[in-house]
Write a structure and sequence with these properties.
Layout lengths: L5 H5 L8 E4 L6 E5 L5 E9 L2 E9 L5 H16 L4 H10 L3 H16 L2 H19 L9 H10 L4 H20 L27 H17 L4 H13 L3 H5 L6 E2 L2 E7 L2 E5 L3 H8 L24 H10 L8 H13 L4 H8 L4 H4 L7 H19 L14
Antiparallel strand pairs: 1-2, 2-3, 3-4, 5-6, 6-7
Helix pairs in contact: 4-5, 5-7, 6-7, 8-9, 9-11, 9-13
């Protein structure tokens, strides 16, 4: 056939076996006629001693001229030393994002992360990432796909940013595993949403109300002594909930609470006398190694949220979270004049930047000292003490 044209191709009839008809203008450009009557344009070349073919499209879906242009592009790639047929084959075999999610969770999250982090990753993977990107090939995901997913969760910026973080880590590992080229992480340059920090500190009056309610529920037996002790320990030590929840009696030593595994690794937490008194008053459950014993024999308490909601409502502290007790511990430490580095050590922070969120509270003791000092000097010189004085503008 001198040249593949629409009329000539339409005239080709199916036979008992598939056959090829080649174009006279472009070497390697042809059409495959299958027994079913379907006709597909082909580009054929040799690479590594083997004949390779690339399907260019089905006759009727694309025109002969469009197929001819595609054939030229394929031959151009071959001339540059590329192997388009192999690249297409590799793309077909390439894993999907859903498969990457499963590998990421099994090979990274379950092996390297703590259970709480695993749960957070699992939630992001199953609820947000797989539904949106699961069918995509890993190599096909682009920055705009990530940006679109991030934008869809803009109403919940915290969740949107956490999902973006999981995606970024996952695509970094995809590069390590050879599933994407180095430096191709599509999460790069996708800006995070601004998050509103929920720094809630209990005032002295609020702490007194909370203390009174804890004593009341303990006396009347509406909450277990273990739950009450847990909340007292959270206030007195500044620990994270998980650190108190899984605390074992064997971890308590003369040096403090020697925790073998926390969010930041093994950690020794100081145990003040008042906290030791809380522990001393707590009955030990036979056969239970945990301080905060739960309802199941030999296990620790797992439900803190429901008791906390009942307690905070009774104390008039609606909206206060359990984690805010840790904030209260930190704010009291900083406001008392304790150096920010020491507060960080008490809280178990590995980076000073994490503790710096409380730095502005360090102004409180400085301001009080300034007021007291100025009051003494004012008494000596007879300066006015009325704070309602106004300034006159002298023109």
């Amino acid at each position: 056939m001198p040249k593949l044209t629409k009329r000539a191709i339409d005239a080709l009839q199916p036979q008992e076996a598939d056959y090829f008809v080649w174009d006279s203008e472009i070497v390697g450009f042809g059409i495959r006629v299958m027994r079913s009557g379907a006709k597909t344009y082909q580009a054929q070349y040799r690479k590594g001693g083997r004949t390779r073919r690339v399907s260019l499209g089905r006759h009727g879906n694309i025109t002969p001229d469009q197929a001819r242009q595609k054939a030229r592009e394929v031959m151009g790639m071959v001339a540059k030393g590329e192997n388009p047929a192999e690249e297409i084959s590799q793309h077909r075999r390439a894993p999907t994002v859903a498969a990457l999610c499963d590998r990421f969770f099994a090979a990274h999250a379950q092996e390297r992360c703590k259970p709480s982090t695993q749960a957070e990753y699992k939630r992001a993977l199953e609820l947000f990432i797989k539904p949106a990107l699961g069918a995509f090939k890993v190599v096909d995901v682009e920055r705009k796909d990530i940006a679109d997913l991030h934008h869809k969760s803009r109403a919940t910026p915290y969740q949107a940013n956490r999902t973006l973080g999981v995606l970024s880590k996952m695509f970094n590992l995809a590069e390590v595993w050879g599933l994407r080229p180095d430096g191709s992480n599509p999460c790069r340059h996708v800006p995070k949403y601004r998050e509103q920090k929920r720094d809630r500190y209990l005032s002295t009056a609020e702490l007194q109300r909370l203390g009174a309610v804890l004593s009341a529920v303990e006396a009347e037996g509406s909450e277990t002594p273990y739950i009450v002790a847990a909340f007292r320990l959270l206030i007195l030590t500044g620990c994270r909930l998980g650190e108190i929840q899984t605390l074992k009696w064997e971890y308590i030593t003369p040096r403090g609470m020697e925790l073998p595994d926390t969010k930041t690794g093994a950690r020794r937490i100081p145990l003040p006398d008042v906290a030791r008194a809380v522990l001393a008053a707590l009955p030990r459950m036979p056969g239970n190694a945990y301080v905060v014993a739960g309802k199941i024999e030999g296990r620790y308490a797992t439900d803190f949220q429901h008791p906390w909601r009942r307690i905070r409502t009774r104390a008039g502290l609606e909206g206060v979270r359990i984690h805010d007790l840790r904030h209260t511990y930190a704010s009291n430490a900083v406001s008392s004049g304790m150096p920010i580095q020491m507060v960080g050590r008490l809280l178990g922070h590995t980076q000073l930047q994490t503790t710096m969120r409380y730095a502005h509270l360090a102004d409180d003791p400085v301001n009080r000292a300034a007021e007291e000092n100025a009051a003494r000097l004012s008494a000596a010189i007879g300066a006015p003490t009325d704070r309602r004085l106004t300034l006159r503008v002298v023109s």
